[in-house]
Amino acid sequence: MIQFSDFEKKIKVVFKDKDLLKQSFTHRSYINENPRTALSHNERLEFLGDAVLELVVTNFLYKKYPQYTEGELTSLRSALVNAVIISEVAGDIGMNDYLLLSKGEARGGQIRG
């Protein structure tokens, strides 16, 4: 069984809502294979997280580079906030080790954004 407390220790963050943490790692395929689970999949959280990450990066770039045009800022943000970069960072901090996947997805390798 996956121990999400190990992930919390690894990233040095303690989550108040452990169910939300577990949901954030739950792929739709896991729910399809385990229909009796009380969990929901992570797609809505992913949608929200992508928007928050984009907002935070936008704010950072806007303040850091006041001389840049909207087009330049958009290009920078696109280079930083995309599925490839997010997947690399997730891999670097070991998030793939905690994903709840169906047996088929788990055999297939990493999930990409």
TrEMBL record:
EC number of this enzyme: 3.1.26.3
Domain RNase III: 4-113
Keywords: Endonuclease, Hydrolase, mRNA processing, Nuclease, RNA-binding, rRNA processing
Highest taxon in the source lineage: Bacteria
One GO-annotated biological process of the protein: rRNA processing
Reactions it catalyzes: Endonucleolytic cleavage to 5'-phosphomonoester
Top EC class, one word: hydrolase
InterPro entries: RNase_III_dom (IPR000999), RNase_III_sf (IPR036389)
Record carries keyword Hydrolase: yes
PROSITE patterns, alphabetized: RNASE_3_1, RNASE_3_2
Pfam families the record matches: Ribonucleas_3_3
GO MF: ribonuclease III activity; RNA binding
SMART domains assigned to the protein according to its UniProt record, in alphabetical order: RIBOc
rRNA processing among keywords: yes
Function comment: Digests double-stranded RNA. Involved in the processing of primary rRNA transcript to yield the immediate precursors to the large and small rRNAs (23S and 16S). Processes some mRNAs, and tRNAs when they are encoded in the rRNA operon. Processes pre-crRNA and tracrRNA of type II CRISPR loci if present in the organism.
Family classification: Belongs to the ribonuclease III family.
The name this protein goes by in its record: Ribonuclease 3
Organism lineage: Bacteria, Candidatus Nomuraibacteriota
